[in-house]
Amino acid sequence: MIVIALILSVLVGVFLGKYFGGQQKFAKNLLVMSAGFLITICINEVFPEIYGSGEHNVGIFVIAGVLLQMLLESLTKGFEHGHFHHHAEDEHILPLALIVGLFVHAFIEGIPLAQEKEVFSPYLTGILFHNLPISFVLGSFLARSKTFSPKFWLVVLIFALASPLGMWIGHYFNPEHKIYFLAVVAGIFLHISSVIIFESNKNHKMDWSKIIFVVLGIALAMLGHLTHDHHH
């Protein structure tokens, strides 16, 4: 069930990007809303689990996640933030570095899922919501193309299977180590959501639409948080 949800989140995002990718405002709003959702999941769900574990120096792994994401962005060039116009002279060919960066990013996110006991945990919903805008940007590469090429489908398949593969590999790790992988992912989430939310507004003017979509993302995450607490 978790694997199907992970793959579907990528496919839905790709098709949305394919048919709505030309609408940059739609893409921006989706990204901003997902950032609000992601940072709320981090603060309400992931951080309490990490720091409530009693593991010493777990914060170092959060910082490592932030630094790892900075390194990955040297490969992806900010693809996760919607910066997809820098990548290739041929808009239908994705650079190998970008594919590697996205794979590593999604693979690491999948590892803690191996020890998740709930079908739709807050952490999983965070990944699903996070996958949508990234795969939306992926689909946007074909916004001006009439067909899905085999090479493009290969890239989509690699990205869609990265988190499930990470989840599968995660079963071979000691369950006690889950908290460290979760801390690394928390750092990744924190960096991505912060960059999207706090990117400089044009002429440093107040961007009310950005604030509204951040609040919408936060509200969705809070609704899930309250529902999750109610069931426990």
Automatic annotation (TrEMBL):
UniProt subcellular location: Membrane
Keyword Transferase in annotation: no
Topology within the bilayer: Multi-pass membrane protein
GO cellular component, as recorded: membrane
Keywords, alphabetical: Membrane, Transmembrane, Transmembrane helix
GO molecular function: zinc ion transmembrane transporter activity
Membrane-crossing segments per the record: 56-72, 93-114, 120-143, 152-173, 179-198, 210-228
Stored Pfam families: Zip
Protein name: Zinc transporter ZupT
Upper lineage: Bacteria, Pseudomonadati, Bacteroidota, Flavobacteriia, Flavobacteriales
